[in-house]
Predict the 3D structure of the following.
Amino acid sequence: MIPNLKAEILEPVLCRGFPNEADYKALDSLATTIAEKHKENGFA
């Protein structure tokens, strides 16, 4: 069933322990990417 799924895989954010500044920047980047993809596809 997965080959028929039309989904885009985004880069995950992995963090172990207490997050540092780079982890927060990666999360902000992921959130921005998700928001842009939603706008592109008319979900927002």
About this structure: The CA atoms of residues 14 and 23 lie 8 Å apart. The radius of gyration is 14 Å. The helical segments are 21-40.
